[in-house]
Description:
Layout: H1 3-18, E1 25-35, H2 38-44, H3 46-67, E2 71-75, E3 79-84, H4 87-98, H5 102-106, E4 116-127, E5 132-133, H6 135-144, E6 152-155, H7 156-159, E7 170-176, E8 185-190, E9 212-215, E10 219-220, H8 228-242, E11 249-250, H9 253-256, H10 266-273, E12 277-286, E13 289-298, E14 304-313, H11 323-345, H12 354-367, H13 370-386, H14 391-406, H15 414-428, H16 433-447, H17 450-463, H18 468-480, H19 484-496, H20 504-517, H21 521-534, H22 539-551, H23 555-568, H24 574-580, H25 588-598
Parallel strand pairs: 4-6, 9-11, 9-12, 10-12
Antiparallel strand pairs: 1-3, 1-4, 2-3, 4-5, 6-8, 7-8, 12-13, 13-14
Helix pairs in contact: 2-3, 8-11, 11-12, 12-13, 12-14, 13-14, 14-15, 14-16, 15-16, 16-17, 16-18, 17-18, 18-19, 18-20, 19-20, 20-21, 20-22, 21-22, 22-23, 22-25, 24-25
InterPro entries: A/G_cyclase (IPR001054), Adenylyl/Guanylyl_Cyclase_3/4 (IPR050697), Nucleotide_cyclase (IPR029787), TPR-like_helical_dom_sf (IPR011990)
Protein name: Guanylate cyclase domain-containing protein
Domain Guanylate cyclase: 29-144
Amino acid sequence: MTSQDGRDSIVTAAAHAGSGALLPQRQKVVLVIDLVESVRLMSANELGVIEQWRGFLQFATGNVLPHHGGRLVKSLGDGLMAEFDSAREGVAAALELQAYFEAGNASRPADERMYLRAGLNLTHVYVDEIDIYGSGVNLAARVATLAGPGETMVTAAVRDGLTEGLDAHVEDMGECYVKHVAEPIRVFRAGSAGPTPVLLPEREYLRGVQPTIAVIPFSGRSMGAEHLAIGELIADGVIAHMGKTTELKVISRLATTVLRHRDIGVREAGAQLKADYVLSGSYVVIGSRLLLTAELVGTGSEDILWVDRLNGDVADLLRPNSELCYEIALQAHQAVLGSAVQKAMHRPLPTLAGQALMFAGIAGVHHVAPEGFDFSGKALSAVIERHPRHAEAYAWLAKWHAIGTNRGLGGPSSRKIAADLADRAVQALPDSPFTLTISGLVKAYYDQDLEGAARCYGQALAANPNELLAWLYTATLCAWQGRGPQAGEAARRALELAPIGPMQYYVQSLAGLALLCAGDLKKAIEILRHSLRLNGAHTSTHRALTMALTLDGQVEEARQVVQALLRLEPRFSVEIFLQRYGGRAHPHAKVLADALKEAGVPAN
């Protein structure tokens, strides 16, 4: 039910308590049901939806509730609350109510279909003649938010009162966090899954929600025997590059090769491979030159997201770091990224699939303008609401808060929020290198707990020696501590692991600062300049490049960089730098601060 309704209930209970009246307490199964996307449905067809809802209420109060011994507690314009004496009766009523709109939905367009979501909890409630009260009532409403359209979710207390197969098919959805409840609660789905589930069953949950791309071996226009392997080489090279990014799942070429010469559509290929995107193409060989056309298509809409003609040497395909394969992988990756962000920015959050939300959220953290950064926080929060056990979503949102604070966007509560998100990520996946790394970032950035951060990064690298962010933040940590050689080595490892993807500019920015602290000014300036070409709005890169150029004697160029920096962040000063810089306690921080001052950054 609505938050206002909850406040009204509390006020009413307080009034009774203040008058000296003692409300009777009873154990009840509380059912909360609401209409999914009621605001959108009402705005499109207000009278029609009202008429349908009134018919549903008549069905509920005239048939279902009396038959199952239920009592209607309250009805709002898009939801209802009822109480029952047993779990069996409450769940039976919920499933019967869920079926009400099924017949009508069969003849409605997809965007006009009406679905209910339901939550049930067994709890002690305080009862009067008009309402019921208690924290267990609120928990039933929270459990309902975990249900997808057409689904019914129940707490463990309700599950214990059901007989599997007789009362309902019951599936364990695992432990979930819900708003305003400190500890996770165990949730079960009663009945079948809806068309777009919010939660995955416990056994499937670790599969994550990253988008999946299939690279089909390219087809040759000339079928000479000597040219047949070229399409496989292209696919291998592209997969090798795309496989280095954490934002995508890339299907093995062993699985995609079978579709190379089959005349099937993109949608069918996506269904066969369980892929969200398909990258394919054709090529022709002229002497030692290779001409090819590459095409990326979304399997759901069959829209072409990117198409291009490229050329290069056949011999390039035999190199470990083929420039041609890298270019295809880079362009395709950016097209997937751009598509996810555009789709997310122009469609209501509730209509987006979890994969699109997650990918758009990650993209916004690293790659877009301020409005996109703000949207990424909303998208990641929406992923957590839909998938309360998704550890990586908690970790990404913790990182989002840290980056926002670094940009001067965080409020006084950012530290507590980020720490809570990082803790929840580690609780959900305690052995995940990524969640351990983000936990270390929060410890280092907010609390200056550099030893605790080092332990987290060490655990992450012990679990996965190729964890990019663990190497990157180790480089930053060593730089803060004045350990130049170790900072430079960790920075170089991070750069090797980030040849592609939306995090490339971010990796280069932090690695550049680490190399600067290691004394490798030439390399630092080179990669910091490249980072700004990828994202000219990243103020941290401007700061690092300013310091590197000044210390290298290129003060005039450093002053030009400062002008760009101050246009992006007019209130930036040397004092603010020292407040934000994690290594401010080390003597080298004064050297960096003096370099900023020499280049024209105001002292305060």
